[in-house]
Design brief:
alpha/beta, 9-stranded mixed sheet, two-stranded antiparallel ribbon, flat, disordered C terminus
Amino acid sequence: MNLPPRSRRLLGTLLVLLAAPALHAAPGQVFPPLTETELASIEAGLPEKATAAPIQPRRVLIFFRTEGFVHASIPAGRQALQRLGEKTGAYASVASDDMAMFEPDTLKTFDAVVFLNSTGLRFENPAHRQALLDFVRSGKGVAGLHAATDNFPTWPEGQALMGGVFHGHPWNAKDLSAVKNDEPAHVVNAGFCGQGFWIREEIYQMRAPYSRDALRVLLSLDMSKPENARPAKDIKRTDNDFGISWIRNEGKGRVFYTSLGHNSDVFFVPSILRHVLDGLQFALGDLAADATPSAQLKPAPKPALAPAAKTTVQELTPKPPATAALPEESSLRATLTDATAADTALWVALDQVHRLGVTGLVPEVEKLATRPGFVDRAATVLGALRKSAAKDALLRLSKTVPEGGRSPLLQALGAYPSPDVIKRLGELAAAANPADADAARETLASFGNKEALAALVALPASPEATRAIIHATSLIATRDRGAAKTAVEHLQRILAEPALAPASRVEALASLATLDRAPALAAADALFTDPDRRVRQAAATLLASDPTPARVDALARRWNELPADVRVAFLAASARPGTLPLVRLAIAGDEPLVYEAGVRAAQRIDNLDTLLSLLPRLSQKGRTRELAQWALANAKTPELSARLRAAATEAAPPAPLPVLLTLLADRFDREALSLVVTSCASETDELRAAAFGALATLTAPGDLPAVLALAPQTKKSADRRDWRKALFKAAALHPSGTEATALLIGRHDSADANERPVLIGALTLVRAPEATAALDQMLASPEAESRKAVIRALSAARGQESLGLLMKVAAASTPEDERILALRGAIETVPILEGLNASVRINHFRKLWPLTFRQDEKDAILAAVRQIKDQSASKFIEEFAPADPKPDSKPVT
């Protein structure tokens, strides 16, 4: 339901009354502007060009809404993401914290969404949830930075989308942490030059669904370093695996995540900005990258641990003032040729050569590459220069640097797909040294062209060569379509090899599908019953994308004979009406996993008759009913609500009436309100409880008279709880504050002692002078318990009008216990009132200070003032905080 801002604020107050108070950052957070130095630091770290040219113009949504903790690094991250796209031409971007961006028609105008330090997002609108899932599964991308894994607390599918869920940060923002490069040769890790590194940054630990069985983990904590050790009480994981960056596939789309981004200076580091850009280009579909889960890689890639020198990437990143001039070529040459220069000075100089693109320093960089510990950084610079002189230097170094240490050079040669480079890489790919051979094969594969493919095919047969050929063919689809026919022939030959490893067979099938779907589908038909589960599932997923009537009919005839994992994989990829016969078979079956996959497919396809076939499942218990109810609640077809209402009025409903009422409320079907109101009078506890629960959900502006009239129907505590929720919502949203006050006062005068406090609480939500006057009059009641009930309601309301009344009671000559109660409520209200600046809050506390009775109240005021970062707060503390507390005094915390 879309509500105006005022109504949303009232509902926020309502939630305070219904639950324990919690502090959340409101959307629309205003951040201070970045300084010139910060802007210059971000600009200096940007790569000159994107790793991959966009296949088509791209548009990215940078979404930074916070409904929880607000990260101060959001402005730096937003600037970095926007400039990454602008400078390299990789994408255009829109930055927003407005949930309206996830309206389906708006969202589909983007190619990827980046969740930038968003926190606590609930995505309560089912249309927004489905829009995001449809968005990525249809072939688009999602990326997440840092707190993107701290969202969707009530939406498991949303949590699963990012690949992991935040579970604390034993490694804090100022801690020195060692980072392991799990895959030095992976294209998304190219910015790290094949190395691990050190960083000062807040590092998360993750809980399920994080697993290397489902994610291609690219960076993780280097737990071989003692600096990363933490007390056992702080560690929740039992496998010592703390992933930092990863990629994964979701349907036809792609997901990239990194937990880096808590500290603003992370967005100044060139290697991290390159990593983020490459990850985002993968999510967009422009940068081809292998997302096979890490656990399936045989053999596993050899990781690069953090170096012995504990210099952080932030320290290695130059931080000149925004107005400082970059060093001239002569100055850089002097540093690079200085035999006495410290390593740190040389690293800084290499980075400046990299960013300036000083081609005249190629000889100096080449010489420096032979210095111990510098081959990787020098190779990165030579690769980034994109000049023939730099290419020739890399080729010379590939012959002079000792075997086993050439990997960074061979990776840097990936910037030069020329015949002489391909020839040299072919020689090294057949060399005896495994590290050099692996790097040469990976670089050849990354070219994705006919000449590189020929060089790989010419290598002696081996599992490693086969994997490289498959990788090369996967890139040919976007880089060299003229070589597609040759690539298809090689893939068909590879798939026909009986001894081919299952993981390679899966990759080959996926590559073939990108090049030519007809032979890929034929291969999938043959692999549908392969002995290996991964192969079967890959084949099923591919076949589901082309549900011809003949194929569906053939599958239906042997449906129950197929392995369950094949059926689940097929259904998980089903998004077309052509698969409905198989979806209905799954829904009618009794195998839990197959049934669940069928239900989820039914919800995606959104066919009315298929969804209605789930109604009998609502009579069952447990997971079976839960899934059916979820699918029916989230289905988008508009006719479904009318059919559900009709079913609820039948003499013998096809599903339990309490479940149908809950379902109609989940769909926010306002036309069901009359049925809900009638059911609130039921003598059956279960039906009545469901009706009041639905009432709390469906209540909208104008419903206050109807909700008040239902008070006598509450018989159980659950009825009264949900009626209270509905009443508070109706009072807050009522169009006329004057009318709402009259209705509540009229009911209050005839209500019993149990109902009156609830009515008073509802009255505090009405923003009208009449409501404030009525509450003030109630505070003059001769009955002490009535006065206390009003004070408690005002304390819970947390509003400006409530604060005024509480301060009035605290200053009046009323009984001491009532003044203390009002004083405590006022003290708790001041810090969380909306729209007050620091000086106004301090002024309120100055008025409350002389009204305090005990040290407890003084301590509470001092604790609240200490949270205000303002000069007026400092003066307050100096004036009122005791300089030398007595030994028996309670210290201010």
